[in-house]
Amino acid sequence: MCGLMSLLLCVPLLTAFSASAQESKTFKAEELDQMLAPIALYPDALLSQVLMASTYPADVAEAAKWSKANPKQKGDAAVTAVQDKPWDASVKSLVAFPQALATMAEKPEWVQRVGDAFLAQPSDVMDSAQRLRAAAQKSGNLKSNEQQKVIVEEAPQTQQTVIKIEPTNPQVVYVPAYNPTVVYGTWGYPSYPPVYLPPPPGYAFGTALVSGIAFGIGVGITNSLWGGCNWGHGHGDVDIDINRYNNINVGNKLNVNQNNVKWNHNPDNRRGVPYRDAKTRENYSKPLAGADQRRDYRGRDADREKAQATLQQRGADPAQGREKLRNDPQTRERAQTASQNVDRDKSRAATQNVDRDRTRTATQNRGGDNAFKGAKNAGQTHQQISRGNASRQAMKAPAGGNRGGGRRGR
C-alpha cells in the first residue's frame, strides 16, 4: 500500500518535471526546418512580416477573419482599412496579402510555434530559412524569374553565403505556393516531415505545384511591406523601414531620426497568449503582483543558506544533528524521553491550574451564600426587637378610661 501511495505521489512530480524540462528545451534544427518549410521561400520582406506577425497569434486569427469577410481588399488599401483595429502593425500589414494570411489561418497552432521559435531563437530561425533556400536552389527549384530575383552573396560580417529573395518589381509582390516535399528535394529528416500549407480555396495554381513553385496574382504595394531580414549578422535581426512604416501606420508612427530600426516584440499585443519557455516569459511577460515579495523570499533563502554554511564551518551543522537524531537509536530515545517529560510537566501544570481555579470558585460561592444568610438573619432580628419595644411601651402606658369608668359606674 505504501509503495502504491509513493508511486501516486511521484507521478505528479514527474509530470511537472517533464513539463518543465520540455518548456526549457530549444527547438532543434530539424524542428525549425520542419516549421519554416512553408514560408522560407517567401520574398525577404514578406518573410520578415510573417515572422513578426506570428508572435501575435490571436491578432493573426482575427485578421484572417477580417480578410475572409472582405475578399476584395488587398494591398495598401486593405492595410489602411484596418488602421482602427487593435492588432499589431505587423499583423495589419498581412491583410495586404490575403493568400498568405489565409494560408496561416489554416494552422493556428503552427503560427504560434513559429512565433515561439522566432522569439526564443531568432538567429536559429534565420539559419533555418537559409538552409532551406540552399536546398531548394540545389534541387533546381529556386531561381530568378518574372516574379522574383534570387541573389546569392557573401555576408561581410560573417563571411557566410546568404540567399536573398526580392520582388522583380519592388512594387508588385507575388506570394509563392509550393509543396515542400517536392521543392526542397530529398527531405533530410524523415522523423520531422515538413509542414505543408496548400493554397487556400480560390487560389488554385493548377499543375505548377507538382513540379516546383507557383505564383498567383501579384499584389501591388507601396508601403505595406516595411520589414526586412538582416541576413548575415548572426542575431536574427529584422529591420524596419521607418519611412514605409510611418506612411502606412499613420496613427501609430515611430518617432525616430534614422532610416532603419530593429524590430522588437511588444508583449502588450500578445493578448494573453502564453509564452512557450521560461526565458521568453522572463523577457516579455509583465511582472505579476507580489513579485517583489517572492524575490525577498528568495533573498531570505539565500541568507539561510549562508547561515547554514557558517554553522557548518564552525562545526555546528543542524543538518548533521538531525541526521544523527534519525540514525542513532540512543540519541533518538533520549530525545523522545525528554519530549515525554516536557509533555508530562505541561499536563501536571495544567491539572494544578484547573484544581486551583475550581477551589477559588467554590470558596467564592460559599462566601456569597453566608452573606445572603446573614442578611436574612439580620432582618429577622430587627423584626423581633421591634415587637419587644412595642410590648414594653404598652406596659408603661397609664390605665385608660376603662378602669376609671368602671369605678364611676359603681
Q: Would you mind describing this structure in some detail?
A:
58% of the residues lie in helices and 8% in strands. The protein has 410 residues and is mainly α. It has a 3-stranded antiparallel sheet. Strand 7 (227-229) and strand 8 (238-241) form a beta hairpin. Mean pLDDT is 77; it is low at 4-22, 288-298, 366-382 and 394-410.
Number of strands: 9
In angstroms, what is the radius of gyration? 47 Å
Strand order of the largest sheet: 7-8-9
Q: How far is the N terminus from the C terminus?
A: 126 Å
SSE string, helices as H and strands as E: HHHHHHHHHEEEEHHEEEEHEHHHHH
Query: Which quaternary structure do these chains form?
Result: single chain
Shape descriptor reads elongated
Helices, by number, come to: 17
Mean pLDDT: 77
Helix content: 55-70%
Query: Hey, roughly how much beta strand do the residues contain?
Result: 5-15%
Helix-strand makeup class: mainly alpha
Task: Summarize the main sheet.
Answer: 3 strands, antiparallel
The residue ranges in which pLDDT falls below 50 over 5 or more consecutive positions are: 4-22, 288-298, 366-382, 394-410
